[in-house]
Specification:
Keywords: Hydrolase, Lyase, Protease, Stress response. It comes from Klenkia soli. This is Putative intracellular protease/amidase. By secondary structure, the protein is α/β, with parallel strands linked by helices. The chain has one domain: Class I glutamine amidotransferase (GATase) domain (Rossmann fold, 3-Layer(aba) Sandwich). About 30% of the residues lie in helices and about 15% in strands. It is built from eight helices and eight strands; from the N terminus they run βαβααβααββααβββα. It has a six-stranded mixed sheet with strand order 2-1-3-4-8-7. Strand 7 and strand 8 (about 205-210) form a beta hairpin. The radius of gyration is 16 Å and the shape is globular.
Length: about 230
């Protein structure tokens, strides 16, 4: 039986200030996609609103714009996937063994409030499937509750883009909230690497989280290991 993974991407193209564009951090999708593809998993893209996915301009520049991201942008079929993502109401959680939330600052706006994504995440998690995120993707987990009303991340050891990294990336004045602090407020045992921007991923049961863009491959590998 072919395992299936649902990759979550954003529909938002700018910060609160429209003069500052953002979107999907492309390599976070491409690195994970390659790992899942090599493991023989089928993948589907979903976004909070369905449809087109804008790309974060900073992810398309050196040193973030690597060969996997370049290959994706050069492939019309792959780019078409980002123009025609499913919406949550088109997704049956029973079809998927895992859900993987990608990042980019854009997700801070449309991931947390998506009740459709929360429903899918809760159903996959509660039947023992893997819930995973990389970088800002954990914003999609911040408001997700389980059937008993508790936060999914409460009491869980996890990671995600650190506030220190927001400051170093010079976007701490642009972001709508402090995601690291919000995760802690939800009861998560937030942890991070000793150094910013290095690969770091954490597994707690069937929750897998990666800290930053450089952690996408490691996080995806841990998802594959958890599914096997």
């Amino acid at each position: 039986m072919t395992r299936r993974i649902l990759d979550v991407v954003t529909n938002v193209g700018h910060y609160d200030d429209p003069s500052h564009p953002t979107g999907l951090w492309l390599s976070e999708l491409t690195h994970a996609w390659h790992v899942f593809e090599d493991a023989g998993f089928q993948q589907t893209l979903v976004s909070p609103a369905g449809g087109a996915v804008p790309l974060e301009p900073r992810s398309l520049k050196f040193p973030n714009y690597d060969k996997t991201a370049k290959a994706w942008r050069a492939d019309p079929a792959r780019m078409a996937l980002l123009e025609n993502t499913l919406s949550p109401d088109q997704v049956d959680p029973a079809d998927y063994e895992a859900i993987f939330f990608t990042g980019g600052h854009a997700v801070m706006y449309d991931f947390p409030g998506s009740e459709g994504l929360q429903r899918i995440t809760r159903e996959i998690y509660e039947r023992g499937g893997v819930v995973a995120s990389v970088c800002h993707g954990y914003c999609g987990l911040l408001d997700t509750t389980l059937s008993d009303g508790t936060y999914l991340i409460a009491g869980k050891t996890m990671t995600g883009f650190a506030w220190q990294e927001e400051v170093l990336a010079r976007v701490d004045k642009l972001v709508p909230y402090n995601a690291e602090q919000r995760a802690k407020d939800r009861g998560a045992r937030y942890t991070k690497a000793k150094l910013p921007f290095v690969s770091y991923a954490v597994v707690d049961g069937n929750l897998v989280t990666g800290q930053n863009p450089g952690s996408a491959k490691e996080a995806a590998e841990k998802v594959v290991a958890a599914l096997r």
